[in-house]
Amino acid sequence: MRRDVAHLTAELIDDRQPFVVGTVVWRRGPSSGKLGAQIVVLPDGTVRGWLGGACAEPTVVREALAALEDGHPRLMLLGPVDEIGGGHRNGVTLVPMACESEGAMEVYLEPMLPQPHVVVVGRSPAVDTLARLAEQLGWRATVVDDGGDPRDHPGVTSFVSSLDLNGLEVDGRSFIVVATQGALRRSRAEGCPRNRRSVCGARRFSETGQRSNRVPENEWCRR
User: Fold this and answer.
1) In angstroms, rounded to a whole number, what is the distance separating the alpha carbons of residues 129 and 124?
2) In what order do the strands lie in the sheet with 38-41?
3) Is 169 left (phi over 0), alpha (psi -120 to 50) or beta?
4) Domains contained in the chain, number
């Protein structure tokens, strides 16, 4: 990976930002794209780097955004219409080149998505077990124990002793699990996002875990 691309991707990973890296893995001249050329495509379509001219870039960006949406890498072949228009290759997305050129190139698109973040609220062996299981999957995990002591949660990497979640980088890929076993009548967690991927946003239960005793949304999530 080129040094400038490596530096950019490292920053995006640290900031938990999704992106796609596109790399030219094969080319046939005449083609402006060079072997090994790379770009980084952001969710808004912004492109950093360069791998080809106006004929290739818009198509690569379109496919990169599709890869970002479904999370699957893909190999795409861009070439003359009469050469690949009716062809088929397993695992390869064939895209006719809009420009009049005999050149062609293959671009590998790799989406990079932030690892999910599990926030477990409570104080029990089950809370610590869930956090450790999440970390074993390569996910980020944080235990939130209001007024608790980190010594009560051995083996937990990230610990917070306040129900204020604003500093935990809770986002659309976060899962918030409330497991206080009745210790609190209402969750006072601040910073809980309203989204379907969050337990606090999609499956809202009372502290006793009973589905029939749901807590009103405005008492669970406040920005």
Assistant:
1) 9
2) 47-49, 38-41, 19-28, 104-112, 74-79, 92-96
3) left
4) 2
Q: Are residues 106 and 124 in the same domain?
A: no
Q: What is the pLDDT of residue 117?
A: 87
Contacts of 147 (CB under 8 A, 6+ apart): 161
Q: How far apart are CA 190 and CA 86, in angstroms?
A: 55
CATH number (domain holding residue 134): 3.40.50
Q: Are 34 and 24 in contact (CB under 8 A)?
A: yes
Residues 145-165 as b or e (16 or more Cβ within 10 Å = b): bbebeeeebeebebbbeebeb
Local confidence band at 54 (pLDDT 50, 70, 90 cut-offs): confident
Q: Where are the beta strands (DSSP E) in 69-209?
A: 74-79, 92-96, 104-112, 117-121, 140-144, 159-160, 174-178
Same domain, 18 and 108: yes
